[in-house]
Amino acid sequence: VNCIRGQVDITEGIQKQVTVLYCKECLRYLQPPKAWMKADLESKELLTFCIKKLKGLNKVKLVDAGFIWTEPHSKRLKVKLTIQKEVMNGTILQQSFVAEYVVEYHMCEACARSAANSDQWVACVQVRQHVGHKRTFFLLEQLILKHSAHHNTLNIKEAPDGVDFFYSSRSHALKFIEFLNSVVPIKSRSDKQLVSHCEHTGAYNYKFTFSVKMVPVCKEDLCLLPQKVYTALGGMGPIVVCTHVTGCVHLIDPLTLRQAHVDANAYHRHPYTAMQSAKQLTEYIVLDSELLGPKQGKWALADLQVARSADFGKNDTVLLCRSHLGNLLQAGDLVLGYDLNTANLVDPELEKYRGKLQLPDVVLVRKSYADKRRKRRQKGKGQRAWTLKRMEIEQDDSKKGKNDLEKEEMERERFMEELEEDAELRSKIALYRDPAVDPSTQAHTTNNMVDETDDDEDDVPEVPLEELLNSLSIGAEETSHHYVGAEDEEYEDEMEEDEMDEDQTTLVK
Predict the structure, then answer these.
(1) N or C terminus: which one in the chain shows less Cβ crowding within 10 Å?
(2) Any residues with CB less than 8 A from the CB of 407 and at least 6 apart, and which?
């Protein structure tokens, strides 16, 4: 056994040191000849990539392979491999050895082109929505971040009524449009422009532009359905409320609880816009509520008596209405709705319903917690324990006035409140713990609030702590990639034992 061990080295002919190229801009490894692959440190994908880089492994049998911890930022990867090979008279020799990989920084072609000139894009996706707010784009931003749909972008720029995404490849732009089509109802068209042409090789270089328009109907909008859509939906509405927008527009008739899901194709066959939007909501106070019995999911039909909060105590005007919010509203609650009795409605479809449609005095949309939130902030107890990631979007704040910045901040605050109120919406995006807020302090504050506050403030919706994710960095993007290994004592002890066994060989008969 000792003679064979001393005379035969089954690792002879196997590469022990390899150089791998790594682009630290896009965090990818070069897989010759031109492919670049993304793999995390000590992942199965990176281990497979390292093993395939070794020459001579096809002559032996690979038994085991695993990473060995290296110093952070050492630009070295070490893999311990255990192999077997038949040497003589049916004797199988098993031996372990370590292969070292030297990581060299090498910028990939796409990153090099972007660094040289960020405007050297091949495809541009222009996403637009012609509405008076940006809440839909706030939601779209979180969906893009959760699914990492932006990792191939060269640059992202803010534009009027939307955002522009720039790509180095037409295929990347088409993939992004497919993602948009899966999360919001859109309509897209494309165009191309000839940049250069080589007469000798017949090569053409184009720049592609994709125009993507999102449906101009948003959550809480009040819509009047065209007569053809009204007939196609079996007489639903025609006054409907948009409850939420996903891959299609979700509508509900507040008088009958009938619901419909309108996809992008059906919408663009007979398009329509919002008759009233969220900025025209009026606050009411509920005087009385009576459930009628019909229920549909979280909605319940009820007859309500409401009065305008601005007129409460000044006059005796009481409005009667029927609403789909019967499960949520009780006497004394504040609710937001559209005052159709005094509104100046301008809609071409409304003229077609003259004499056939009687508009309700008020259409209620959602319960309001504004007064309760204000009281909690006055007591210093309204701090959120969570935050959201943000994309790196190139903005030109010089073209924005002070009012525009304040409006955007108010819209973002309203989007955060929507996340607190809607658990279904929260399930689609990723919420992270705010490192600036101590969880123990937040829990202690919450307990004190339960003990000290009155019942009117107990039903203010909040995000449970168990729904939050721990994040290494809450920023616009992960901008760097470091070779960091485990540093705990148990892991170091295991590595020392592995290094002692590197050259050990075992004879198996």
Answers:
(1) C
(2) none
CA 139 to CA 123: how far, in whole Å? 24
pTM for this predicted structure: 0.73
Q: Dihedral sign for Cα 473, 478, 484, 485, please.
A: positive
Closest CA relative to residue 418, chosen from 407, 426, 406: 426
Structure tokens at 500: 């002692």
Helix (H, G, I), strand (E, B) or coil at 197: strand
Dihedral sign for Cα atoms in the order 217, 218, 222, 228: positive
Q: Cα separation of 127 and 211, whole Å?
A: 6
- Extract the tokens encoding 181: 């089509």
234: left (phi over 0), alpha (psi -120 to 50) or beta: left
**pLDDT tens column, 139-177:** 999 999 999 998 888 889 998 889 999 998 899 999 999
SS (H, E, C) 386-421: EECCCCCCECCHHHCCHHHHHHHHHHHHHHHHHHHH
Residues 6 or more apart whose CB falls under 8 angstroms from that of 492 comprise 69
Report the Cα–Cα distance between both ends of the chain, in Å, rounded. Answer: 10
> For the chain, what's the residue count?
509
Name every residue whose Cβ is closer than 8 Å to that of residue 138 and which is 6 or more positions away in sequence.
411, 412, 415
CB-neighbour burial class of residue 193 (10 A; exposed 0-12, middle 13-18, buried 19+)? exposed
Cα distances (angstroms) measured from residue 244 to each of 88, 134, 213, 274, 418: 73, 15, 18, 14, 11
